Amino acid sequence: MRRVRRSSWLLGSLACLCLASLPGLALGAEAPPAHKYVGAKKCMSCHKKELIGDQWGKWKQGPHAKAFETLKSPKAAELAKKKGIAGPPHEAGECVECHMTGYGLPASAFAKAPLLAADGVQCESCHGPGADYKSKKVMSDHAKAVAKGMWETEKDEKICLACHNEKSPTWDPAKGFDFEAAKEEIAHPIPEDVKGKYLEIVKQRKAQGASDD
Question: Is 23 inside a domain boundary?
Fold first, then answer.
């Protein structure tokens, strides 16, 4: 596959997109997903810490957090017009469904309230609804987290292809979607020396009177 351009991340899913391949993400889904959505701010409580890699900060600076805002740009309006979409793209369901997390889902799909469109494509669009795996104890055991609903995004290209596909107005068939390059572009790994040892390290730091930030 060839390398994906940044523009395809920013406006890569403006058209009417098929989400049926991902459980609970289809527009107008009849039933809520098995696990509930909690929103990126719940993830932030741990993933804003430098110790664990500050995934929150990397997401905020990346294209996914800004996905909904891109729909308000002149470029988005131009693309929507070419696709015959009436009205502003940030008000069109066929655009918004891939530019925010949880669009079209019933209230029962969320642990508390539906997520805000302004927060764009949040953690759970890629990692799965997190209500049952968000605790430190579960997240410290990868297998347990997966069993509780966490998606193994780094292994499953279909999660990305639900939006980054040929139905997007910016799709370039000559380039396609380079899964490996795309992962590298938005990489936000947990440091290897912390992975699977977070609780142990935090416990040691507290015993020494140090912060876990």
Answer: yes
Q: What is the CATH number of the domain that holds 95?
A: 1.10.1130
First to last CA, the chain: 39
Q: Which residues contact 100 (CB under 8 A, 6 or more apart)?
A: 67, 68, 115, 116, 117, 119, 120, 121, 122
Pick from 129, 123, 120: which is nearest to 99 by CA?
Answer: 120
Q: Has residue 117 been placed in a domain?
A: yes
Distance CA 128, CA 153 (A): 9
**Structural domain contains residue 1:** no
Give per-residue pLDDT as tens, 123-167.
999 999 999 999 999 998 999 999 999 999 999 999 999 999 988
Mean pLDDT over residues 74-91, rounded?
A: 93
SS3 state at 88: coil
